[in-house]
Amino acid sequence: MNNEPVKLTWLSGPDIDRLAMTNDEIIAAVEQGLVAQGTPDGAVIEPRMHLTPDPAFNGHFNVLRGYVAPLDLAGVKIVGDYVDNYKRGLPSEMALLNLFDPQTGMPRAILDATLITDARTGALTAIGARHLARKGSKILGHVGARGTAYWNVRLLDHLYDFDEIRVHSRRPESREAFAARLETDLGKKIIVTDNWRDCLEGADIMVEASRLAEREELFKADWVKPGTCVIPYGTVSALDIGMTDIMDKVVIDDFSQFRAGKLGALRPHINAGLVSEDTVHGELCQIVTGAKPGRERDDETILFWHRGLSLSDIALGAAMLKKAEKLGIGQQLVYR
After folding, report:
1. Strand, coil or helix: what is 44?
2. What HEC string does 272-307 produce?
3. 176 CB contacts (<8 Å, ≥6 apart)?
4. Where are the alpha helices (DSSP H) in the chain?
5. Residue 181 class from Cβ within 10 Å (0-12 exposed, 13-18 middle, 19+ buried)?
6. Gap between the Cα atoms of 60 and 82, Å rounded
7. How far is CA 76 from CA 286, 296, 314, in A?
8. 149 with 170: CB under 8 angstroms?
9. What angle do the packed helices 114-132 and 310-327 form, to 10 degrees?
């Protein structure tokens, strides 16, 4: 019997900051997860699970689970989503990613997954837009200012170099700080709006990452011009119930998550029978791998709904581990 200690890698938040992952590194890692998802026997993904300790805390945990065969990694991410954390000076979403040897079950690494959660979400938004938005898209409208919102805008602008970026969120101080950070990092003017309509109407790409406590139809179908790409992923739906009626294609990230749960932007439309597995065009992974077409005409109006993939967490975590090993960043912890 081997008496050598079993060790695992620990990457803290400061470690991950030191990695300075580039836009292209993040997008490439998340795309690797999509390719695995779209390849037979390339991945296993389980629908996310939720834990709500007490409704009075105004938050819950998401548990995401998956396996990426080309990376030889299984993973479980636990992320807390607490709306009022800003009152305590904390991020609304904080997470840990646990990576395992899929053949033995032995742990390989634990990573602070707060940045992973934000960046992989933005990367999925950007990859979706790359395949589903018009190539000449020049106006972005973005509702929401949480951590994932920053990476949505940053990575979308990396691909499209927008002429106009509009942002909105519920709290004035939140949207102003969001815009200031974007202006500094992107080097361009950000338009701050005090309402949904001014932010979204007429934009080429519309992203909705709101944080509603209960359903409210704040995002109107009337604001969507032909040829737009609409990307909603708020936990509680803000979409006009008629939104799916104007879409030429509806694309999702994963059918198992489409079938499960009570949350998400399209849940009211699914429950009302307005969108179904038969009417969905397909999963993004099918488009990335060429199994199905993405945008086929400039006048197509397309909705891409993503809820977040454990495969994206695992793939980005694996890319970070690889870079950390190369740079000598991180700690080796004794497991047993």
Report:
1. strand
2. CCCCCCCCCCEEHHHHHCCCCCCCCCCCCCEEEECC
3. 192
4. 13-19, 23-37, 114-132, 147-160, 172-186, 196-200, 255-259, 267-271, 284-288, 310-327
5. middle
6. 6
7. 24, 36, 8
8. no
9. 120
Identify whether the C-beta of residue 177 lies closer than 8 Å to the C-beta of residue 147.
no
Tens-level pLDDT at each residue, the chain (336 residues): 567 888 999 999 999 999 999 999 999 999 999 999 999 999 999 888 889 999 999 999 999 999 999 999 999 999 998 988 988 988 888 999 999 999 999 999 999 999 999 999 999 999 999 999 999 999 999 999 988 899 999 999 999 999 999 999 999 999 999 999 999 999 999 999 999 999 999 999 999 999 887 899 999 999 999 999 999 987 789 999 999 999 999 999 999 888 877 778 889 999 999 999 999 999 999 999 999 999 999 999 999 999 889 999 999 999 999 999 999 999 999 998
How many other CB atoms sit within 10 Å of the CB of residue 157? 19
Q: What is 67-123 written as a DSSP string? A: EEGGGTEEEEEEEEEEGGGGGGT--SEEEEEEEE-TTT--EEEEEE-HHHHHHHHHH
- Only one residue has tokens 């992923």, namely 233
